[in-house]
Amino acid sequence: MEFNPGNPVIKLCVQGIDMEEKGKPEDASQLFMQAWNEATNDFEKFTAAHYVARRQKDAADKLKWYQTALQFALKVNDDAVKGAFAGLYVHIAKCYEELGDADNAKKNRELAISAAHTPSDKGPFYHGTRADLKVGDLLTARRTSNYDTEVVMNHIYFTAVGNNAGLAAALAKGDGQEHVYIIEPTGSFENDPNVTDKKFPGNPTRSYRTEQPLKIVGELTDWARQSPEDLQKWRERLAGNKGKIIN
Hints:
This protein is an alpha+beta fold. It is built from eight helices and nine strands. The chain folds into two domains: 8-115, Tetratricopeptide repeat domain (Serine Threonine Protein Phosphatase 5, Tetratricopeptide repeat); 125-239, Alpha-Beta Barrel (ADP-ribosylation fold). The mean pLDDT is 89.
């Protein structure tokens, strides 16, 4: 199961998030419910149910939707959803606490602790950029950000989703050709905290970071390109992002 920012259900969820940030919760709720109604596979249903859940005002309704999200996440049970399990169990535990069910709250908090894990993703992995590189080159940290020339990154970032690396390349500053390089981490890595549980539950984009070099072992030439209109929307989101980069 691969996260795709061009997926219609994901687009609806993104639009709902935008409405939340604009202080329009009712519009957000409608978009999230539309996403749920249009979802056709387990990953889409998991994602939409998570957003429907967080718009619920009643603890029982919230619990029902978070349990629904968990049900579909367990069906998927791959690297696109594993990072969400701990958060889902925490949400469910909080609902039980509000409902006065201490036993189930405790049980789900214990499940949240057991679900916390370091990434087990085996790849393949990709890095999107406009830099012209070759097989054998090393990508290293402590270089200028692809998106903000005033920021020097302490880590080097990569993903296990080729289409997302392609989007990263398209959004990178500069006039060079877009490249998606196939890379191999040379050391340990962790979930990218800038995306994990921020917009989407867990780490569905399978985005990671490391302080160790990434070795280029090839280049991906075929990935889903975003339309000019969609790219402009992503650029506007980047430009309007008020959150601080966790570096």
